[in-house]
Amino acid sequence: GHPSSRLAGVTYDDIAAIFLTPLAEPIDEPDVTTTPARRLRDALEPIATQGWWSRPAGERLTALEIDFFPGYVWGRAAALGTPPSSLVAATFGVFDAALIGAVFEDGSATVSRDDILTARAAGAAQSIDAVAGPEECAAVADPLLDALAHLDPLGRPLFSALRDLPVPASPSGRLWRAAELVREHRGDGHLAALVSAGLDAPEANVLTERWLGFGFGEYSATRGFGPDALAAAAARLEAKGWMAGNDLTDAGRRARADIEASTDASQIGLVTALGSALDSVVAGADAISQRLVEARSFPADPRKRAAG
Does the reported pTM lie above 0.70? Predict the structure, then answer.
């Protein structure tokens, strides 16, 4: 069937029931690095994603008659203007390209660019306002936006396009935009690291999900890859010596650690620009993010927070 058919009609309430309910059993925190760049990324991830995970954003998208996944894809891609679907798939990177292209075309045909951008921004700000005051938001947003303003755009399509959009006026909106910018900046850098490691999208997903402690296919399936594509990816990783069966080898873990180090290295300009403000930004963001998790505005699974 059509690649987007398996996601047709998946509403915000469906997603909330799957991802946003408290865990029945605790899940161990994944063993990721604690570099400045990684700490910044993980502290900001719940804030950055309020344009799709939060109920206020979800309800605005529902009112526009667009479901969760098309809203996510078109909402993120809209910073680029109205690009061809192949460009959206390339910049998103770690999803099945046919799926992303089809979902993007559905979403962009349903809702105007202005409307999707407005819905995301208003919903994200409302969600953050419910858990954090203006001064608290500004204390994180202002140093981040200052640091982000002068970063080199080389090889950063989603970051650069997002940086060109008008910054929201409210402190909560500014915080959301700053967090989104960090997320897209790191994401663009991560794709470069994957390319330089010689990985394709299904291989990258399998490597990351097993590194973080997800079961084989548990995370990759949400990226649109079916069992056959994942089995073939695992076979290619096995041929490299990076997997044995469904598990990573020591060499595979080292390879994924190298990708993480390359991704962190792509953030050096941001970390340097933040300088001594980084620790207070991380602490402030982490406090707000924890409240968003408790408010069921972000998945409770710590592996999901680490994976993006």
Answer: yes
